[in-house]
Amino acid sequence: MKFQIKSLSGELEEDQKKFLRKRILWLEKHLPESSVLTVGVKQHITKKSNQAYEIILHLTLQNVKKPLYVRTFANTLADTIAKAEDKIQRQVVRIKERKKGIRFKMPSIKLPKIRFRKRAK
Q1: Domain count, the chain
Q2: What is the pTM of this model?
Q3: Residues in the chain with pLDDT < 50?
Q4: For a Cys staple, 60 with which of 54, 56, 67, 115, CB 3.0–4.6 Å?
Q5: Partners of 58 in the beta sheet?
Q6: What highest taxon heads this organism's lineage (predicted)?
């Protein structure tokens, strides 16, 4: 799996990058080598809180038409990463279940045609 981290505003410290890699490591075990995960981190300064973080995950998988896209907000980086991790894990598991063919298809049953005779009066 190819893993890219992009800081969309400001710079990320090395310990923040390590923490992000550690939390997203779960996906590396469950995804093929051809997949690409891009993580974008934005830091917003608002009046209510000193710092607010936004994380954008963009996951491209082989044989899947649309890439997975997750966007989360929180006041701390750890909370934002946890939310994004949960969302992307749910989506990956859902795709894997679909590919395994868990869907149940009802067998078709052909019934013989029955002809009714008219009653004589």
Answers
A1: 1
A2: 0.70
A3: 102-104
A4: 67
A5: 38, 69
A6: Bacteria
